[in-house]
Amino acid sequence: MTIERRIGCELLGLSTDTKPDYPGLAEHRFYETDTGYIYYHTGAAWGILRGGAAPATLTNKTISALDNDFSRTVAVDFPLSFGYKRSGSFIPAVNNPYLGGAFGGMNVTVGATQTAFGALDDSEGAYQNFRETATTEKMGIQSTSSTNSLITTRQQQPYAVVRCRVDATSGIRFYFGFTSLQTLPASNTVLGTTDAGVIIGYGSATANFTTYNNDAAGAAADVNDFGVGVAKDNNWHTFEIIMTLTTVTCTLDGVSVLLSDQLPPVSTPLYFNCLVQYV
């Protein structure tokens, strides 16, 4: 193969090709199309920038449930062009649900005067408290439109986690996750037959914490318990949703449900919600 020069300091060729070598190649990169190795020229010599030619032994290393295949490390999206993944926190606060305050968890108090405020818990630390008295009210973080929401797609492989509690469960719906609807319905049917999404929570008539997922293809949403079933209660819990191009994992305090059917289409816009509906 003839060595090809691409934009800027990028060269492409085979591993069997003789790499050009002269001082003027400093900071050039050479991509081997047959091995995937990437070399970097220091001005004096070529060295491996990325590839498997330098064996390494991993000792006493822990790979988390989220990063169990290195897929969330720096990735090559195009030869010689490095991609990255963005991460951050969504922080709700009074009158400024996107930027204000900081908290470690979210608490919802049912049947109290309408307000939202920061508070401290001896065990949980700082958290945001939402409370309301009116029936049919929604409390927490809710999508309301295409311009007042957190929007993603499964193609972006989002990861969402929340630490929260609801101080009562009777007459309450709790939903955390993503839906193709711009506004989540006030209903025990959180995902209809034409809705796509992944939700963790429970309806007012549901006994256990539940996962709901659907692909908007016309069937009823797939519904699953965590393990043998975890009864809804008013304790603090950690909920996670981890999306990839092939599966979605939902966790409740470390107990996982792996979803592989009726997943939202990879390019469907999904709106984030973490809220309580007071029935």
- Give start-end ranges of low-pLDDT stretches: 68-87, 89-105
Number of strands: 21
Question: Could you spell the SSE succession in H and E letters?
Answer: EEEEEEEEEEEEEEEEEEEEE
The CATH topology of the largest domain corresponds to: Jelly Rolls
Output mean pLDDT: 77
The level of helicity is under 10%
The number of helices is 0
What's the shape?
A: elongated
Distance between the termini: 69 Å
CATH architecture type of the largest domain: Sandwich
CATH class descriptor name of the largest domain: Mainly Beta
| Content of β-strand | 35-45%
Number of domains: 2
Q: Keywords, please?
A:
2 domains, 7-stranded mixed β-sheet, 40% strand, elongated
What is the strand and helix layout of this fold?
Blueprint: E1 4-5, E2 10-13, E3 29-32, E4 38-41, E5 46-50, E6 75-78, E7 81-83, E8 105-110, E9 115-121, E10 125-132, E11 138-141, E12 151-152, E13 159-166, E14 172-179, E15 196-202, E16 210-215, E17 222-225, E18 237-243, E19 248-252, E20 255-259, E21 270-278
Parallel strand pairs: 2-3, 8-10, 8-13
Antiparallel strand pairs: 1-2, 3-4, 4-5, 6-7, 9-10, 11-21, 12-21, 13-18, 14-15, 14-21, 15-16, 16-17, 18-19, 19-20
